[in-house]
Write a structure and sequence with these properties.
The complex is a heterotrimer. By secondary structure, chain A is mostly helical. Chain A contains 9 helices and 1 strand; from the N terminus they run βααααααααα. In chain A, α3 packs antiparallel against α4, α4 crosses α5 and α6 runs parallel beside α9. Chain A starts with a strand and ends in a 5-residue tail after the last helix. Chain B is an alpha+beta fold. Chain B is built from 11 helices and 10 strands. In chain B, the strands form 4 sheets. In chain B, strands 8-1-10-9 form a 4-stranded mixed sheet. Chain B has a two-stranded antiparallel sheet with strand order 2-3. Chain B has a two-stranded antiparallel ribbon with strand order 4-5. Chain B starts with a helix and ends with a helix. Chain C is an alpha/beta fold. Helices cover about 30% and strands about 15% of the residues of chain C. In chain C, the strands form 8 sheets. Chain C has a 7-stranded mixed sheet with strand order 5-4-16-15-14-6-7, covered by helices on one side. In chain C, a hairpin with a 4-residue loop joins β27 and β28. The chains are: A mainly alpha, B alpha+beta, C alpha/beta. The interface between A and B is large, with 73 and 87 residues. β1 of chain A pairs antiparallel with β2 of chain B, so a sheet runs across the interface. The structure holds ligand MGD (2 copies), iron/sulfur cluster (5 copies) and molybdenum atom (MO). One iron/sulfur cluster binds next to α3 of chain B.
């Protein structure tokens, strides 16, 4: 028996749920893919040029789903228009910035893709730079929109945008590898993407994993040595109700296993890399789940 | 010394700055004297009746707990409501200015602006906000937008106290202008020790407590020390009262990821209904 | 920076909060007395006086209506007892009118009794049918029965007097409190209520009264006393009620031992020379010597043995109580609902008397009240000839001792709220034993379900009514003026009864019609006022505008004291008995033998045996509240309270299923393990666990209500009702146990066995054997 028990309280729903976590994942994967797409045209790494189109189409496709999720997630879907009306714009609301980004990023990306298709290196580069900034910002913002809530202890950390961006980078690559692998099965041999290139991307993904692990460790330290809410949040939420997405999905499936694949001889096998890419992409979704819903979880009983 | 106060007057974005202790301004506030609270929950019913609030959402509620070991036990109560923060995170984070800070200290909602994005709910550290469900008794009142305690501005401006204050049997809820030194709240504030919820967040709540108890004020403690019955009831709530955010996880039920999937499914099912509403709205707009 | 005005320009300002003009400056906020629409227009709502009859305190308030609908009920800030406060039940009471499961048409049963099939009939048909049933039995009027549960007498009782039937059963006694308390007080003081002056007292000894949950007008004075007066509150209770939990000291007692504690304390007070000897010798029938002698045998050690409260604590509290001036005692069902509860009541009042705390400031005050009289001319009362029947009625029916031809049921729900409720249901279902049942209920209660015909009454907010209750130091009167027309075809019982009488005695030859000459219920109320002592010509008008009469002054919102026109506090008159003496035959307080005995059934309880207590919670009344959505949302489940330390030994975990077995059967419910209950006691609250009444009460938004009207539907209930746990009713397993001295059910004496649920047990299962119920009754006769 506890010394004290809370015997009555009313209940609250989590304010943002699955939809938002899926949206975060999609935006992340989109930004990640787009970064790869820009390697060739913006950063001038020639060998990446062939996959630029696939990468940016993937990025656009991911992003096309986003408005559907976001708009229908609103209590009043039609009122999404208010977000863009000048009289309604609220400069201090992170969501306002996000709206601007979510609408401008796909447009920039479309224009960029147009120049890629038209094989116009100059404009592709110029618009590409703009797009890459927007891509990163769009995803940076998803971290920020969660971070700027001082009352949500698990989310209120300056690491949030970095964690989100790292996640975006690795899940974007993971997804792209899968798509390229599938694409290779259907296109003529001469149009196939070289496997070496994919291996190189996997290598970047591995660096991302290391950095991600480092960030997670920092976050872990903060909660461990943090306020009562942070400590308990870690204990009850992350290691409790959200243990699967946090510990298993993100850490084990999405981080440790692919890391070992990518540093071991298994990476020599095609299947190894494909598997690692799949695990990473899925694992990052685990992070989106605990980050969004877990962060709000404790407070539903406050 | 208005000058020195003037300097501390912060504001969060496009809104009236905090008015705490600023001469010439009002700051309506509530003090809840927990020595007088008898846990009768009259305040809860009064508030719900005042606004016709649907089942499953609350503007105010009374948390209850038992302390100690037999026979040295005690019961504790703590009424909760929006704190009408001087520095409200909810206002700062709202993308459409639907929620705003009134110059007399009220934090208010404009239903016709609210898009139901629930950013403010995520932002509020006190769970003081809720999304009004799609169906309610009086269909002419707003639905699917966010709502919260208004400090009964419609009554206060007519010269009467908020509904929950008027109903409070114990006389525990005391309401008035904290900046007016002759008001009852100001007098109490100078006499008694006041505590607020989560002071570390710097929201500067306008609701404060006399005799607050840590057991009820602490957030994770509220979670870890629930009675089993209450935990099960919360599960029941999540099962039957579908919020529109699709993020509820039932404890001890299906695996978390399976529930995440079910939630997504739930969300997809609402799209046709909402689409129809949007369509109807268009038709209304164009042809009526 | 954009200010609020700019906001208005930007958004179409049609919302709740956007359209606020500038504030009326520096105005002291009033407590209420007015009400405004909360959206857009802020227009004022129409106010009418209202008297809450959800419980017997009859608090005075207002209804506020708009567009033919009552939007709110609220306390009246000028009311000296209420001081603007209504409890949650009172605040929610207006919902009764718009309850989607309300009965709005006379209903006639089709098919078997209790099958749930009804046909709507017209009032003409209904009156014709009922009056014929009455007419044919008029020769033996005593075969026409009334089960009356109203807090105040109205049409149904008068009807019985009119037809000369003596067969009135009361499921609630008149006034506040229950039989033992009232009888004890009546015997000792000549009045049946004593009001502790909690605002002014320094010390309160509370025996088994849950003041903060069941006596709201007293509770607000208690909190004022706690903070303004630093009073000390000591509560004896078997479990930690809200009152016990907020007391300075909660002393858990073994059930039924309050009497011996009080006697031992009285003994200690006398032994220590702390008694008010003047009061004892002038104002009681006892001499100090005799009293000292008679009390000497009740030692604190004896009290410790019986109650478990350490003797030292008893001594300390007795001394503290006697030394605190003024001090008050209070008691209620916890103390009196036991075998020989009357003795305990007397012992409790003795404590007040020997310390001289009778009708003094801060002590126990004699009631100040108007005795609302019946409209004149009134038929001769048949009541005095009525033998108290109460809860034994269905047993006597089963036993063939009563010839029942017609049973009227008014404001009572014995099929749910009486002990051995299952036996009630068996009898109500038996058409041979009770051929015809008429219920006036506006709701489909467990009892109404078994009726042959339902003549729906109006609900509180639609009823002309007047009452007075001794809840303040000044007498007051409060009334209801309906703020809306009755919904559907609902009709006040008094009008229904009038029509039945007119049908029975169309010419007035039978001498019945003369008592029913009032034109409407408003006239009835005016006649009541006219007949009541102390009223004058202005009374009705004053009541109509102010809601309460007389007016003693304004209530200061800050400290809730009454102020006269000049702002000086209005002081109550005390020591009223000094003028004319007590209303007893000797003019003194009369104490007879002082005694206390332990209930033999409570001797040597086994480890798994417990005394079951049932109790009320702040937000529900027995049945009146159960279909009010805001009430049931807050309280709908009543798990078994069980001491956490004991539970371990029994192998019972928190929230797991348990069997509660009494002599007659068992129920299956969830366990609530708590540190707030005596280890030999278990508790189940009442008011929930419904098999009828409506979608809210049954926690089933999809339950089929054949009589529900489309216009009354509430989408909120259909869509948002979230709880599915509706609790369990303990009353089926509680056997009849009437205390011969008071004729009341000893609710708090039942012995039960607690065990973990067995295979196949489902939550909410109730299995009882009515034959066993009956056998217990039979045994009690010998
Ligand atoms: N909220 C609410 N208020 C009501 C009513 C209602 O239904 N709901 N009904 C009204 C009516 S009709 C009545 S009669 C009154 C009743 O008012 P109360 O008598 O105050 O209420 P009960 O819950 O019947 O019993 C009071 C307490 O007795 C305790 N008890 C049980 N056994 C013992 C014992 O042996 N010794 C002691 N010391 N305590 C014991 C119970 O734990 C319980 O807390 O309330 C009135 N007010
Ligand atoms: N286990 C347990 N049982 C108890 C108690 C307990 O503490 N524990 N308390 C006991 C006590 S103190 C009391 S007083 C009794 C009370 O028990 P009852 O006297 O039976 O009262 P209720 O159960 O409230 O039933 C009132 C009924 O009146 C009907 N009704 C409601 N409103 C109206 C109306 O406006 N007009 C008419 N004509 N009818 C209406 C409804 O059908 C409702 O069911 O219960 C007793 N039963
Ligand atoms: S309590 Fe929450 S909703 Fe209320 S003002 Fe503060 S942040 Fe906003
Ligand atoms: S839900 Fe409404 S009030 Fe809340 S942040 Fe979104 S638009 Fe603003
Ligand atoms: S101030 Fe008004 S809106 Fe706020 S909790 Fe009280 S009654 Fe409800
Ligand atoms: S109405 Fe007052 S006394 Fe009752 S629970 Fe609410 S705050 Fe406490
Ligand atoms: S205490 Fe509550 S139920 Fe009883 S009369 Fe007063 S308001 Fe009504
Ligand atoms: Mo009662």
């Amino acid at each position: 028996m506890n010394e004290s028990v809370i015997t009555y309280n009313v209940f609250h729903h989590v304010a943002w749920g699955t939809t938002i976590s899926v949206y975060f994942w999609l935006v992340g994967a989109s930004a990640g893919s787009f970064v790869i797409s820009s390697f060739g045209w913006v950063f001038g790494i020639k060998r990446y040029k062939p996959l630029a189109l696939t990468a940016s189409v993937t990025a656009i496709a991911m992003l096309l789903i986003v408005p559907i999720l976001l708009i229908w997630d609103l209590g009043r879907p039609l009122r999404f228009l208010y977000l863009m009306l000048p009289g309604y714009w609220h400069a201090t609301g992170p969501m306002s910035w996000g709206t601007a980004l979510i609408f401008s990023y796909p447009i920039a990306m479309l224009i960029y893709t147009y120049f890629v298709v038209k094989n116009n290196p100059l404009w592709a580069k110029i618009v590409g730079i703009v797009s890459i900034v927007l891509a990163l910002s769009t995803h940076w913002y998803t971290g920020v929109v969660m971070e700027l809530n001082p009352g949500r202890f698990l989310n209120h950390t300056a690491l949030a945008p970095l964690l989100f961006l790292t996640g975006a980078f690795i899940s974007g690559i993971g997804l792209l590898i899968l798509i390229l692998w599938i694409q290779n099965m259907f296109v003529a041999i001469k149009n196939r993407i070289e496997w070496a290139l994919i291996e190189e991307m996997a290598q970047y993904m591995m660096y991302g994993l290391v950095f991600d692990a480092f960030l997670l460790f920092l976050d872990f330290m903060q909660t461990l040595y943090g306020s009562h809410s942070e400590v308990m949040g870690h204990e009850i939420v992350l290691m409790g109700v959200f243990r699967f997405p946090y510990l298993w999905l993100e850490m084990v499936i999405g981080l440790i296993i692919p890391f070992f694949i990518l540093v071991s001889p298994i990476k020599k096998f095609k299947a190894g890399i494909i598997l690692a890419a799949l695990l990473v992409a899925v694992g990052v979704y685990g992070m989106r789940v605990w980050w969004v819903m877990g962060g709000q979880y404790l407070q539903t009983f406050y | 010394m208005p000058d020195s106060h003037e300097k501390t007057r912060r504001s969060y974005g496009l809104q009236t700055a905090g008015t705490k202790g600023v001469a010439g301004t009002k700051r309506y506030a509530m003090i809840i004297d927990l020595r007088k609270c008898i846990g009768c929950r009259s305040c809860m019913v009064a508030c719900k009746a005042e606004f016709g609030i649907p089942l499953g959402v609350w503007r105010t509620w009374v948390k209850e707990g038992d302390k100690g070991r037999y026979p040295n036990t005690k019961r504790i109560f703590m009424p909760r409501l929006c704190n009408h923060c001087d520095y409200p995170v909810c206002v700062r984070n709202c993308p459409t200015q639907a929620t705003f800070k009134h110059k007399d200290g009220f934090v208010l909602q404009r239903y016709n602006r609210c898009i139901g994005c629930r950013t403010c709910m995520v932002a509020c550290p006190y769970n003081a906000r809720h999304l009004i469900p799609a169906k309610r008794t009086d269909g002419n009142l707003p639905t699917m937008v966010v709502d919260k305690c208004t400090f009964c501005i419609h009554r206060v401006k007519k010269g009467i106290v908020p509904s929950c204050v008027q109903a409070c049997v114990g006389g525990a809820r005391i309401f008035g202008d904290m900046n007016d030194p002759n008001s009852e709240v100001a007098k109490l504030a100078s006499k008694e020790t006041l505590t607020v919820l989560k002071p570390e967040l710097g929201t500067s709540p306008s609701v404060s407590y006399i005799g607050g108890d840590w057991e009820l004020m602490d957030e994770p403690h509220s979670y870890t020390n629930r009675s089993t019955g209450l935990k099960e009831e919360f599960n029941d709530f999540k099962r039957n009262h579908k919020g529109d955010a699709f993020g509820d996880i039932i404890e001890g039920g299906d695996s978390t990821m399976k529930q995440v999937g079910q939630n997504m499914n739930g969300f997809l099912h609402t799209i046709p209904h909402k689409a129809k509403n949007v369509f109807d709205a268009f038709v209304n707009f164009l042809f009526k | 920076m954009i200010d609020r005005r700019d906001f208005l320009k930007i958004g179409a300002a049609t919302t709740a909060t956007a359209a606020c003009p500038a504030f009326i400056d520096a105005m002291e906020l009033q407590l209420g007395g007015q009400d405004f629409h909360q959206i857009r227009t802020y227009h004022a709502r129409q106010r009418k006086p209202y008297l809450c009859t959800m419980c017997s305190y009859f608090d005075g308030g207002f209804t506020y209506a708009e567009a033919g609908e009552v939007m709110k009920t609220e306390g009246n800030p000028d009311h000296i007892a209420t001081r603007g406060k209504f409890c949650s039940k009172g605040l929610a009471s207006f919902f009764g009118a718009s309850d989607p499961d309300r009965i709005l048409n006379p209903l006639k049963r089709v098919g078997e009794r209790g099958a749930g099939k009804w046909k709507e009939i017209t009032w003409e048909e209904a009156i014709k049918e009922v009056s014929e049933k009455v007419s044919v039995n008029l020769d033996d009027a005593d075969s026409i029965y009334l089960n009356e549960g109203g807090f105040k007498d109205g049409g149904a009782i008068r009807f019985m007097h009119t037809i000369g039937s003596h067969s009135i059963i009361r499921s609630r006694l008149q006034g506040i409190g229950t039989a033992p308390k009232q009888m004890a007080l009546k015997q000792m003081t000549g009045v049946n209520f004593i009001l502790p002056d909690l605002e002014h007292t320094k010390y309160v000894l509370n025996f088994g009264a849950n003041i903060m949950e069941t006596a709201l007008p007293l509770a607000q004075r208690l909190t004022d006393g706690i903070v303004n007066n630093r009073l000390k509150l000591v509560t004896f209770d078997v479990r930690m009620s809200n009152t016990a939990g907020r007391s300075d000291e909660w002393l858990p007692v073994f059930p039924g031992s309050d009497g011996i504690i009080a006697l031992a304390m009285a003994n200690v007070i006398l032994q220590n020379g702390l008694a008010n000897t003047d009061f004892i010798s002038y104002w009681t029938n006892y001499s100090l010597e005799e009293l000292t002698k008679d009390l000497a045998k009740f030692t604190p050690e004896m009290a410790e043995e019986a109650s478990g409260v350490p003797a030292k604590t008893i001594v300390n509290i007795a001394i503290e109580f006697a030394k605190s001036k003024p001090a008050a005692v209070f008691s209620h069902n916890g103390l009196s609902w036991h075998k020989d509860g009357i003795d305990s009541e007397k012992a409790c009042l003795l404590l007040a008397a020997i310390t001289g705390n009778i009708d003094n400031e801060g002590g126990n005050c004699l009631p100040r009240q108007f005795n609302i009289a019946e409209p004149q001319p009134a038929p001769e009362s048949t009541e005095n000839a009525t033998k108290t029947m109460h809860y034994s009625f269905p047993f006597e029916v089963k036993d063939g001792k009563r010839n029942v031809q017609v049973l009227f049921n008014h404001m009572s729900n014995p099929a749910y709220s009486a002990p051995a409720a299952s036996l009630w249901r068996e009898m109500l279902k038996d058409e041979k034993k009770i051929p015809y049942i008429v219920d006036f209920s506006p709701f489909m209660s467990e009892t109404a379900e078994l009726a042959d015909i339902i003549l729906p009454d109006v609900v509180d907010v639609e009823r002309d009514n007047i009452a007075s209750s001794p809840t303040a130091l000044w007498p007051w009167m409060t009334m209801t003026i309906p703020n809306i027309e009755p919904l559907g075809k609902a009709q006040d019982v008094r009008m229904t009864m009038k029509k039945i009488v007119e049908a029975i005695d169309p010419t007035g030859d039978k001498g019945m019609k003369q008592y029913w000459a009032f034109s409407n219920t408003k006239q009835w109320v005016k006649d009541e006022i006219k007949a009541t002592e102390g009223t004058d010509k202005k009374t009705y008008k004053r009541l109509k505008s102010k809601g309460v009469w007389p007016n003693y002054g304004k209530i200061d919102p800050a400290d809730r004291k009454i102020l006269d026109k000049k702002g000086n506090p209005v002081l109550a008159k005390y020591a009223t008995y000094k003028e004319e003496g007590f209303a007893t035959s000797s003019g003194k307080m009369e104490f007879d033998s002082l005694s206390w005995t332990k209930n033999p059934r409570h001797q040597d309880l086994k480890e798994s045996e417990f005394v079951l207590t049932t109790f009320k919670v702040a937000y529900q009344t027995l049945s009146l509240t159960s279909n009010l959505k805001y009430i049931s949302e807050m309280y709908h489940s009543n798990p078994l309270w069980l001491n956490g330390n004991v539970a371990k030994k029994l192998g019972i975990r928190d929230d797991s299923l348990v069997r509660v077995t009494s002599e007659v059967g068992f129920l299956v419910t969830k366990a609530f393990l708590t540190q707030g209950i005596h280890p030999q006691v278990v508790g189940i609250s009442t008011s929930v666990g419904r098999s009828a009444y409506g979608r809210v009460a049954q926690a089933d938004p999809h339950a089929h209500m054949p009589f529900a009207k489309k216009e009354q539907e509430d989408p909120d209930i259909d869509d948002n009702l979230w709880w599915r746990d509706a609790g369990t009713n303990p009353n089926d397993i509680i056997p009849l146990a009437i205390d011969p001295a008071s004729g009341v059910q000893t609710w708090n004496d039942t012995v039960v066995t607690i065990s973990p649920a067995e295979a196949g047990d489902k939550y909410g299962d109730i299995k009882v054997d009515n034959a066993k119920h009956f056998a217990i009754y039979k045994q009690s006769l010998t």
